[in-house]
Amino acid sequence: MVTQLHRRHPPSRGWLFGIAVNDGAQLVGVICVGRPIARLQQDGWTCEATRCVTDGTKNANSKLYAAAWRAARAMGYRRLITYNLPSESGASLRAAGYRVVHQTRAQAWGRPSRIRVDQSPPATKLLWETTA
Q1: β-pairing, 79-84 with 46-54?
Q2: In angstroms, how far is CA 86 from the centroid of its own chain?
Q3: What's this model's pTM, rounded to 2 decimal places?
Q4: Residue 90: which of 118, 129, 45 has the closest Cα?
Q5: What Rg value do the Cα atoms of the chain yield, rounded?
Q6: Cβ(48)–Cβ(81) below 8 Å
Q7: Other CB atoms within 10 Å distance of the CB of residue 126
Q8: DSSP sequence for the chain
Q9: pLDDT, tens digit, 9 for 90 and up, residues 60-119
Q10: 129 forms bridges with which residues in the sheet?
């Protein structure tokens, strides 16, 4: 489903768990939650929603983000984060109880000490979180 519907990225590599939502007849969305991508966020108590996709079914995104937090909290995590672009409304995140805590700078992942090829162009992003 991520391959078919995600606007910018391929499916995540490795994750802790995933959740699906259906409309009673068919699958309408999925969320993938894993270890935080940014190593400074990897404190052992934080997980990250790395992909969330739906077919546009009303409230599916909010249900997925809320269910991901309930599952993460039940597994002992104290914080769930995700990122989106400033051009995206974030309505589903707000409805699920998340809040913006930081705006990142647009920068490449590579450094002189560790060369990396960016999978997508660097962009400013909003960091959202929900906590226990």
Answers
A1: parallel
A2: 14
A3: 0.84
A4: 129
A5: 15
A6: yes
A7: 17
A8: -HHHH-SS--PPSS-SEEEEEE-SSSEEEEEEEES-SSGGG-SSSEEEEEEEEESS-TTHHHHHHHHHHHHHHHTT-SEEEEEE-TTS--HHHHHTT-EEEEE-----S-BTTB----SS-----EEEEEE-
A9: 999 999 999 999 999 999 999 999 999 999 999 999 999 999 999 887 767 788 887 777
A10: 81, 99
Under 8 Å between Cβ of 29 and 21: yes
List b or e across 8-43, with b for residues whose CB sees 16 or more CB atoms inside 10 angstroms. Answer: eeeebeebbebbebeeeeeebbbbbbbebeeeebee
- pLDDT of res. 57: 92
Q: Are 69 and 52 in contact (CB under 8 A)?
A: no
CA distances to 8, 64, 77, 120 from 19, rounded to whole Å, are 20, 7, 16, 25
pLDDT at res. 126? 96
pLDDT band at 39 (very low <50, low <70, confident <90, very high): confident
